[in-house]
From TrEMBL:
Pathway where this protein functions: Amino-acid biosynthesis; L-lysine biosynthesis via DAP pathway; (S)-tetrahydrodipicolinate from L-aspartate: step 3/4
InterPro entries, per database record: Aldolase_TIM, DapA, DapA-like
UniProt entry keywords in alphabetical sequence: Amino-acid biosynthesis, Cytoplasm, Diaminopimelate biosynthesis, Lyase, Lysine biosynthesis, Schiff base
Family that this chain belongs to: Belongs to the DapA family.
Keyword tRNA processing on entry: no
Swiss-Prot/TrEMBL catalytic activity: L-aspartate 4-semialdehyde + pyruvate = (2S,4S)-4-hydroxy-2,3,4,5-tetrahydrodipicolinate + H2O + H(+)
Entry superkingdom: Bacteria
E.C. no: 4.3.3.7
NCBIfam families: dapA
Name of the featured protein: 4-hydroxy-tetrahydrodipicolinate synthase
Subunit structure: Homotetramer; dimer of dimers.
Organism: Roseiconus lacunae
């Protein structure tokens, strides 16, 4: 089978959280998290995406988190920088800066809030793709952005050499099937719990939230599916599904995963408003979920 564009980003990518301490980005803890991911075998790190609380970072913080990630990774994994915006000019500026810093690719969320037409989506991504020499991953997540990028628009975008990947987070398996069946783009799951179903129809990996917590288990799932060992892939899917559905369903991402990281001894610090911590009932439910998964360290949370 002919390799798809973007297939060098197949496997596990982790949308890493941004650690905060006393209201500031904790760059020391960020480096610890990066080392944890690299030791686990994560193929690609994705800083300052939604999981990294990018909407609340200043422009200087946004750029520095990307730079610090690239410098710490030092070629041991790929870095796909979250540099999207609902302003095309801002997306261009952030992406050009990340490319200059050495990012391997850019994650470009669909412009949010202003809800462009399909032609607006096309022209936005086209402008970014033509402005940089690194691959562009189009991020389709209508639950966050308020509007979906149609398959027909993604098909048009696939004609642009710089567009090589789609992070598919519509929750629609048919959407994934249509993209895989009609383009040569690499599709990456944007929902942890849909990784195996999407890979069964041709997706090649996941940009994961749960990978902040259990990267090794996510790698087992993706590797088994890639190698055609669907018995093992199904086993890992159901093991992870129980964790992901209960944990990530407690509150908006990244509230639950940050709480879980603290419970298992990898504290990533505070959340920034308007994100607020889990309440006591949510904390208790999360602790129960982590213990059921086998994370004994959560018992002391």
């Amino acid at each position: 089978m002919t390799a798809r564009r973007g297939s060098d980003f197949a496997g596990l990518s982790v949308a890493i959280v941004t650690p905060f301490k006393d209201g500031e980005v904790d760059y020391g803890r960020l480096k610890e998290q990066i080392e944890f991911q690299i030791e686990a075998g994560t193929r690609c790190l994705v800083p300052v995406g939604t999981t990294g609380e990018s909407p609340t970072l200043t422009h200087d913080e946004h750029e520095r988190v990307i730079s610090e990630t690239i410098q710490c990774v030092a070629g041991r994994a790929k870095v796909m920088a979250g540099t999207g915006s609902n302003s095309t000019a801002e997306a261009l500026r952030l992406t050009q800066r990340a490319a200059k810093e050495g990012a391997d690719a850019t994650l470009q969320v669909a412009p949010y809030y202003n809800k462009p037409t399909q032609e607006g989506f096309f022209q936005h991504f086209k402008a970014v793709a033509e402005a940089v020499d690194i691959p562009v991953c189009v991020y389709n997540i209508p639950g966050r952005t308020g509007k979906e990028i149609d398959v027909s628009t993604i098909q048009r975008l696939s004609d642009l050499p710089g567009i090589t990947m789609v992070k598919e987070a519509t929750g629609k398996l048919d959407q994934c099937s249509a993209i895989v069946g009609t383009t040569d783009l690499t599709v990456l799951s944007g929902d942890d719990s849909l990784t195996l179903p999407m890979m069964s129809v041709g997706a090649e990996g996941v940009i994961s939230v749960a990978g902040n917590l259990v990267p090794s288990d996510m790698i087992k799932l993706v590797t088994a599916a890639t190698e055609g060992d669907f018995a093992e892939a199904q086993r890992m899917h159901h093991q992870l599904f129980a964790l992901c559905s209960k944990m990530l369903g407690l509150a908006t991402n990244p509230i639950p995963v940050k709480a879980a990281m603290r419970m298992v001894g990898r504290d990533s610090g505070d959340l920034r408003l308007p994100m607020t911590p889990l309440d006591s009932a949510g904390e208790a439910a999360l602790q129960e979920t982590l213990l059921a998964y086998g994370m004994a360290s959560a018992a002391g949370a």
